[in-house]
TrEMBL record:
Top-level taxon of the source organism: Eukaryota
Protein's name according to its UniProt entry: Small EDRK-rich factor-like N-terminal domain-containing protein
Pfam family, one: SERF-like_N
Signal peptide: none
């Protein structure tokens, strides 16, 4: 039941894949706190835009 070097090759391939995944995950170089602040700001901007759009739409339907 020997598998030769199949296990070693699979391990090396998986390690390479994991390195690529880790590299892509942290490409922005931000800490957790910085990322949270950035995401919160983006969400506030989206909410503000959505509210403005709904007010404009409401104003158009009332006329």
């Amino acid at each position: 039941m020997t598998r030769g070097n199949q296990r070693e090759l699979a391990r090396a391939k998986n390690q390479k894949k994991q390195k690529e995944m880790d590299k892509n995950k942290r490409a922005d170089g931000l800490t957790v706190e910085q990322r949270k602040l950035r995401d919160a700001e983006v969400m506030r901007e989206k909410q503000k835009k959505k509210q403005e759009d709904s007010e404009v739409k409401k104003g158009q339907t009332c006329k």
